[in-house]
């Protein structure tokens, strides 16, 4: 059973047949909301809205540990994350889909490991390749099956938020080699790895990053909203195909 974590613009899956909702608790507190169990194309899936079902939890306050723990507890086989992002390069225009293969973490102060405190021995994970290669390939196959195109590979920069970046910060991320920028990629990916859960992400570019092209003068939120709505319809189709590939 695959898990889908939906981000901004994807707080429910309209093409999912819902079977039950489960409110769970974990040793790390409560997840962002109930786990929604059901089927897509007859395959079992579980869905979780990262920011809560009313979109009330900002990126830095998401209980990433509880979310990942709850999904592990539900015995999912892997996690597909859907995340809206800003595009740093010209070819990553709003509406572009990307399946990143690398991450740079600029977040701070988030609980980013299960292995701390008490009697828990420290564990260092290998994170050379932060995304699961097999799940990435499956995601890319689903994107093709849905008649969509995605950029295969790229560097996701995870910033702290909830504010958007300055133009100088985006220039820095660009110099660092980042292609897209979002606020929730970390510590989510690392926590999934700590629990040996395959994890891949689909980045949905909803705006040019601060200071770039159409965002040169500033980021226009009503435009983001339009792209978000239109793109998430496409992502829903991709997710439906995921159960077939
Ligand atoms: N920056 C950070 N996170 C984002 C952006 C952005 O420009 N767009 C959507 N999520």
Can you tell me about this structure?
It is a single chain. The chain is of the alpha/beta class and 245 residues long. It has a single domain (2-109, 128-244), classed as Rossmann fold (3-Layer(aba) Sandwich), CATH 3.40.50. The chain contains five helices and eleven strands; from the N terminus they run ββββαβββαββαβαβα. The chain has helices at 64-73, 133-145, 167-176, 188-194, 221-242; strands spanning 2-6, 17-22, 35-40, 43-49, 78-87, 97-99, 102-105, 150-152, 155-158, 180-182, 199-208. Strands 1, 2, 3, 4, 5, 6, 7, 8, 9, 10 and 11 form an eleven-stranded mixed β-sheet that branches. The chain is globular and about 45 Å long. The mean pLDDT is 97. The site of hypoxanthine has 12 residues, from strand 5, strand 10 and strand 11.
Question: Layout of helices and strands, plus pairs?
Answer:
Blueprint: E1 2-6, E2 17-22, E3 35-40, E4 43-49, H1 64-73, E5 78-87, E6 97-99, E7 102-105, H2 133-145, E8 150-152, E9 155-158, H3 167-176, E10 180-182, H4 188-194, E11 199-208, H5 221-242
Parallel strand pairs: 1-4, 1-5, 5-11, 6-8, 7-9, 9-10
Antiparallel strand pairs: 2-3, 3-4, 5-10, 6-11
Bound molecules: hypoxanthine.
CATH topology name, in short, is: Rossmann fold
Sequence of secondary-structure elements: EEEEHEEEHEEHEHEH
Low-confidence stretches: none
- Could you give the count of β-strands? 11
Number of domains: 1
Q: Class, according to the CATH hierarchy?
A: Alpha Beta
Q: What's the average pLDDT?
A: 97
Report the sheet-strand fraction. 15-25%
Helix content: 25-40%
Please report the distance between the alpha carbons of the first and last residues: 13 Å
The small molecules bound here are: hypoxanthine
Cα shape: globular
Assign the structural class, choosing from mainly alpha, mainly beta, alpha/beta, alpha+beta, or little secondary structure. alpha/beta
Q: How many H/I helical runs?
A: 5
This entry's quaternary arrangement is single chain
CATH homology group: Nucleoside phosphorylase domain
